[in-house]
Specification:
2 copies of one chain form a homodimer. Chain A is an alpha/beta fold and about 350 residues long. The first copy, chain A, is built from 13 helices and 12 strands. In chain A, strands 2-1-3-4-5-11 form a 6-stranded parallel beta sheet, covered by helices on one side. In chain A, strands 7-6-8-9 form a 4-stranded parallel beta sheet, sandwiched between helices. In chain A, β6, α9 and β7 form a beta-alpha-beta unit. In chain A, α1 crosses α2, α1 crosses α3 and α8 crosses α9. Chain A starts with a helix and ends in an 8-residue tail after the last strand. The interface between A and B is large, with 43 and 43 residues. The first copy, chain A, binds a DNA duplex (16 and 16 nucleotides) through α2 and α4.
Chain lengths: ~350, ~350
DNA sequence: GTGAAAGCGCTAACAT
DNA sequence: ATGTTAGCGCTTTCAC
């Protein structure tokens, strides 16, 4: 079934068929109907490859993910596909599968390994995509590792200051301040913090927010109760264990962990010490990962709008393709995060 | 940059360039080198659309997922992409987003809603894919809802007996028997079971396996200790609560839930009753969802090889495209599942 | 071993 | 308003 067949059946030219399908030119109602009938009758579907070749538009948007198993990735894709289903774009998915190769090396290694993969993968897209959304696994600065491909690129969940990319990330600082403020408002004064890897951007921003709230409340953050974790659950466990031992004479009444994993690790340690959450010690997480509702008690945490990030990224990508000048204005958007109050913080 | 440009630079015909790129015909080493140089120099990438149009092969495989937020979906995609990265296929992802529209209606509604979406979505693929992998969200029979599109279709995580589809699912019965046997081997005699929705295929198969092991051990399953859940965590909680009340004079020493969610719900109820897992009551789950390692104690469960399902599905799809006759032999594969022993089952 | 050229299915400029 | 036709970038037959 080609456009030619339809033209024959409807007794019109191929141009006319094209006009009615795409609405590019007015067509006499009668002929238009004949075309429509022919299409309905045959179930004809235009060959997208031919169309793309001719129009130089693939109608595909490339979604390049660092790893689909990253906890944030599928929600971001969900957001992208939510936006895309109302457009006529399709998603061409390419998984870099970085998790297997770099495990927990976060910032390290990535650089090299990445650069290669990236170049390779992006190039592989040939003329298959009109824009690409790069979906990061960590909130970090990847400036310089994504080369210009002459097509719109928007980075989701990471940033870069390369002139040829846009990005959409989420808010860390304000929400961390808000989380800390919530703890303070609940009457906590001695609040421990379990940080993420100290040199990472989110750890720094979250600390900034925490400090802000502390200062604002006229309190001070005793350095004895800030412990450096590495984002993993185990580190939360060990940090808390240390805290429990070292500060046993002056136990904090609450602990804020920079992510849910460490918060849960901390809860393990608290329970192991025969203490209760939140009666003895309150716990605050960050990320609102799926597991935060599965632990008991359910974790109070901050939610990152992952789906919104994907949705916005898709929106930006499409706007950029439209050559929309306004789209170029706001290149880097930061979505608000919000507090999710559950059961691990007590009012004292 | 087109093939013509390369031909000009290398001072050969476009045909020759094509020959060296695709290795379709022998080319004099000297000319071949000139072509290779020109390509390297310019960073030329063949236009896939043109190639596809000409060869009538898109080199895309369509991945149609019921919902990317389904707990099994991303692992399956991971498996697909693992296989695909070593081939020259790309993944065209289409998310039906069924979760939003049908919530927990599992089998119901799906039928209608699905059929529409399916037809729509599949057709939308136009000539964009050479095969499609349909990724289900539940292990169920979807016979009749996927129409023939004249291209290979393989169904992952669901089945259908339509002649035009293949499928790859996982093993339920043997592994359920094995799980039950493990409980029995640990000395448990009075074992409660919390079932999934009774009319669903996995619930029936899992029950079959459980019964098998019970019979084999010369025990009987007291119907007083089998409770019907609905796959959700809450139902596990309520089933266990009932059990704890009704059977308080003859408490089971172990409970097997047909999925991790219900197992975790059961653990909640056990804890709430002041009892301990596994000291007082052992718990066995099914699915090995991410959360099963986050609860405390870590859940003993059965793992479904999700990644393997995706990998195998991709393999089958590609084999089918090759017109491989052997591929048509084995149309429905069932991957083995395995027991994951963790900390919720005690030896008594 | 290599090149000329036809043609995949479509769109759009141009002619009518 | 509609038809004719060139050509998008590639592969492949056919002739040399």
């Amino acid at each position: 079934m080609t456009i030619k067949d339809i033209a024959n059946i409807a007794k019109v030219s191929t141009a006319t068929v094209s006009y009615v399908i795409n609405g590019t030119k007015p067509v006499m109602p009668e002929k238009r109907q004949r075309v429509l009938d022919a299409i309905a009758q045959t179930g004809y579907q235009p060959n997208q490859m031919a169309k793309s070749l001719r129009t130089k538009k693939s109608n595909n948007i490339g979604v390049l993910v660092e790893d689909i198993m990253g906890f944030s990735t599928s929600s971001i894709i969900d957001g992208i596909s939510k936006h895309v289903e109302h457009s006529d774009y399709n998603i061409l998915l390419n998984d870099l599968r970085l998790l297997d190769s770099l495990l927990n090396q976060y910032d390290q290694i990535v650089q090299q390994k990445d650069k290669i993969n990236k170049a390779l993968s992006l190039l592989r897209f040939g003329a298959r995509v009109d824009a690409v959304i790069y979906v990061g696994m960590f909130d970090r600065d990847i400036s310089g590792i994504i080369t210009d491909i002459g097509k719109p690129i928007v980075i989701a969940y990471s940033t870069a200051n390369d002139s040829h990319t846009c990005s959409v990330t989420y808010e860390n600082e304000t929400i961390s301040a808000e989380a800390m403020r919530y703890l303070i408002d609940c009457g906590h004064k001695r609040i421990a913090v379990i940080t993420g890897l100290a040199h990472t951007a989110p750890a720094q921003m979250r600390m900034q927010g925490i400090l802000e709230a502390v200062k604002e409340a006229g309190l001070v953050l005793d350095s004895a109760v800030v412990k450096n974790g590495d984002w993993e659950r185990e580190s939360g466990y060990f940090c808390m264990k240390d805290l429990l031992e070292q500060e046993k004479d002056n136990l904090p009444t609450a602990v804020i962990a920079m992510n849910d994993l460490m918060a849960i690790g901390a809860m393990d340690a608290i329970r192991e010490a025969g203490l209760q959450v939140p009666q003895d010690i309150s716990v605050m997480g960050f990320d609102n990962r799926e597991i935060s509702t599965f632990v008991w008690p359910k974790l109070t945490t901050a939610e990152i709008d992952l789906k919104g990030i994907g949705f916005t990224a898709a929106q930006m990508a499409i706007a950029q393709m439209g050559g929309n000048e306004k789209a170029r204005q706001e290149q880097h958007v930061v979505l608000p995060s919000r507090l999710i109050i559950r059961d691990t913080v007590a009012n004292i």
